[in-house]
Design goal:
Length: about 200
């Protein structure tokens, strides 16, 4: 059984996935998979350098993420080109990691689970939910970015209402870390009973 874990920025996905990991569950992280496919020596990085020019690489011949982010935020065409290159590679990396999992069930954590075809890998969708004000407040404290940037990220993600409609399970994360861990442990017991 593969459980897709997602939620808006600042909702607590990392705290939830770390708790599942502490319980011995394999966690496949789509963000990490997206970094693996553009590592030095990987075909995707070579294609990115061919397309955008060698100055998209830093002095270590690794991807300059800040430069790339700037280009794709200013050009829908370049963003589409990049996504058509990376999405299949990321999906392949995720599938390889999911197949390698040996725990009773597996968690696939992805901020874009519902915006991409990654949800198709999952038997269930688990949403970590918080009110928008909490999302903004937590992200401001954590990332040290402007409120305008946080609002722009929230707007770029699927709406809270739409996300909740697609959920099979919801963890409300408006309490403290201990409450969150207890909620995860309860779900863990349920998931284990479903797969055994």
């Amino acid at each position: 059984m593969i459980i897709g874990l997602t939620g808006g920025i600042g909702s607590g996905k990392t705290a939830v996935s770390e708790t599942f990991e502490d319980l011995g569950i394999t966690v496949v992280d789509a963000d990490l998979a997206s970094r693996v496919v553009v590592e030095k020596g990987k075909p995707c990085l070579e294609k990115i350098a061919e397309h955008f020019g060698e100055d998209i690489l830093n002095e270590n011949s690794e991807l300059d993420r800040a430069k790339l982010r700037e280009i794709i935020f200013n050009s829908a065409e370049e963003k589409n080109w990049l996504e058509s290159l990376l999405h299949p590679a990321i999906a392949g990396q995720i599938q390889d990691e999911l197949k390698a999992s040996t725990s009773a069930y597996t968690i696939l954590v992805s901020p874009l689970l519902l915006e991409t075809n990654q949800k198709e890998f999952c038997s269930k969708v688990l949403i970590v939910d918080v009110p928008v004000e909490v999302q903004v407040d937590r992200t401001l404290k954590r990332d040290g970015v402007s409120e305008e940037q946080v609002q722009s990220i929230i707007k770029s993600q699927i709406s809270r209402e739409a996300r909740l409609e697609l959920a099979d399970e919801i963890i409300m994360n408006d309490g403290n870390l201990e409450d969150l861990k207890l909620a995860v442990k309860d779900l863990h017991k349920r998931f284990i009973s479903e797969v055994l």
